[in-house]
Design brief:
The complex is a heterodimer of chains A (376) and B (124). Chain A is an alpha+beta fold and 376 residues long. In chain A, 21% of the residues lie in helices and 35% in strands. The longest helix of chain B has 9 residues, at 114-122. Chain B starts with a strand and ends with a helix. Classes of the chains: A alpha+beta (376), B alpha+beta (124).
Chain lengths: 376, 124
């Protein structure tokens, strides 16, 4: 869900910055923050595999957390005027992935919305987009809602098959939670927002903790032998294998949810009733008028095919890669990109032009790695 | 008599009887991270000093490999295609990339010896 951003201003630090540097994090600028891309003694490959087999701990505190309350009504009513998802119907303790849309139906950002109660939603947006998003929300629905930025909270993601076992040591409630459920709980007197969610394709949790408690809490998590810190490098390879979009790459303000193959974010009621930006265009696309579509692409051989690589059938350019790299669990190159709708079928053979050489690729179903969500 | 020299692009060249064995330094492999793919020049290819001779890809990114000298490629290390991680585990040994017949010994004059290279990377 994230996008890198060039910035000349001094880099911000999350509350966990001292842990990253003391644990050998290789720090890089990301979305205006000084963030760990990988850690000494691990590296992207090991960190990726650790998350798929044990429990990986990610600092995602750079993302924007905010509470949206309604002035005189359910804030979901107002929020539905700028997102195409079913927010009104979201029950307390449930969360949903959705997108902010511009008037052309283009995606301003992707985000998670959690319902706490009839008057309160929690939203979590991408780091690089948070100022833009919050200004947009304010301008569109600011007269009906109040948006409170939670600038004093850190956000941790604990992901992988051992995440439940580890989280249950701190929060016994997790054993009752399913994918995309959320609770407000506490630990050592600190208020914690806990959800069973993440962005790796694995089971896991996102844990929002007060910044003042973040270092102490992280050190406690790291005491568990299953838990290791994981950097942004593996976060990217994990989400790519899981077929999940990276904002600013796989989706942006030029792609609609239909182009992006995210049709599922628009439920039946919203498809029929509309009431969100770009509805006319999206309705036409839903009726079959599409030009491009996001697909999974599996290059043959071992060479990674990366972002901006063009795709051809014969001499005809039919698409472009938007995310690509090496999938450690797949043990080979994996990619996503946009292709013309008329060729966007699983099994279509394409050529990626890599450094002047045509590399055979095939359109494949996403995800590349079976997801492991706790659905029941 | 062999000697080893280093470029500011972090390639090494080990010279023996007019043939240079080229690879990347330990500093380079640490900066690259886990190497997952290596593209080598073809045997017989004519390389230019400072020109592209191959590609090293880590999980995160692709980096160009430059030839520290001009000359003809006489051998490539095919072991790297099967096990690109050798670049991380043994950069100065098993993970050599190619051997080049050095066209002009003057190309070596701009390269650094081990002590000078170590000083250079300390300043980075």
């Amino acid at each position: 869900m994230e996008a890198a951003e060039k910035n000349d201003t001094p880099l911000l630090k999350t509350a966990l910055w001292p842990i990253h540097t003391s644990m050998g994090g290789k720090m890089v600028p990301f979305a205006g923050y000084d963030m760990p891309v990988q850690y000494d003694g691990m590296g992207v490959l090991k960190e990726h595999v650790h998350t798929r087999t044990e429990a990986g701990l990610f600092d995602v505190s750079h993302m924007g957390q905010a509470i949206l309350t309604g002035n005189a009504e359910d804030p979901a009513i107002a929020l539905e005027t700028i997102v195409p998802g079913d927010i009104v119907g979201l029950e307390p303790g449930k969360m949903r992935y959705t997108v902010l849309l511009n008037d052309d139906g283009g995606i301003i950002d992707d985000l998670m919305v959690t319902r706490w109660d009839a008057r309160t939603l929690l939203v979590v947006v991408n780091a690089a987009c948070k100022e833009k998003d919050f200004a947009f929300i304010q301008s569109k629905i600011g007269s009906r809602t109040k948006l409170q930025y939670l600038g004093d909270r850190a956000l941790l993601a604990l992901q992988g098959p051992k995440a439940e076992q580890v989280a249950s040591i701190f929060f016994p409630d997790v054993l009752k939670m399913k994918f995309m459920e959320s609770v407000k709980t506490s630990y050592k007197g600190h208020e914690i927002f806990l959800s069973r969610s993440g962005y790796t394709g694995e089971d896991g949790f996102e844990i929002s903790v007060p910044e003042a408690f973040a270092v102490e809490f992280t050190k406690e998590l790291l005491q568990e032998p299953e838990v290791k810190l994981i950097g942004l490098g593996a976060r990217d390879s994990l989400r790519l294998e899981a077929g999940l979009c990276l904002y600013g790459h796989d989706i942006d303000d030029h792609s609609t949810p239909i182009d992006a193959n995210l049709k599922w974010v628009i439920p039946k009621r919203r498809r029929e009733q509309g009431g969100f930006p770009g509805y006319d265009k999206i309705k036409k696309q839903l009726d079959g008028s599409t030009f491009i579509l996001r697909v999974g692409i599996r290059p043959e051989g071992r060479a990674p095919i990366r972002e901006k690589t063009e795709l051809f059938i014969g001499d005809k350019k039919v698409g472009v890669i938007t995310s690509g790299g090496f999938g450690p669990t797949v043990d080979g190159p994996v990619a996503m990109g946009y292709v013309n709708s008329d060729v966007a079928k699983t099994g279509t053979k394409l050529n990626a032009m890599l450094r002047g050489v045509a590399r055979p690729c095939e359109i494949v179903a996403l995800p590349f790695v079976k997801t492991n969500y706790k659905k029941d | 008599m062999t000697k080893i020299l280093f470029s500011e692009d972090h390639e090494y060249i080990r010279i023996e009887n007019g043939v240079g064995t080229v690879g990347v330094t330990d500093f380079a492999q640490k900066a690259l991270g886990d190497v997952v793919y290596v593209e080598l020049p073809k045997i017989g290819a004519s390389l230019t000093k400072g020109g592209q001779a191959g590609v090293v890809e880590s999980v995160k990114s692709a980096s160009e490999l430059y030839s520290p000298v001009s000359g003809e490629v006489v051998e490539i290390n095919s072991a790297l295609s099967g096990d690109p991680a050798l670049v991380n585990t043994d950069p100065l040994g098993k993970a050599w990339f190619f051997k080049v017949k050095i066209a002009n010994e003057n190309d070596l004059s701009g390269l650094k010896d081990e002590a000078a290279y170590n000083d250079y990377i300390k300043g980075l």
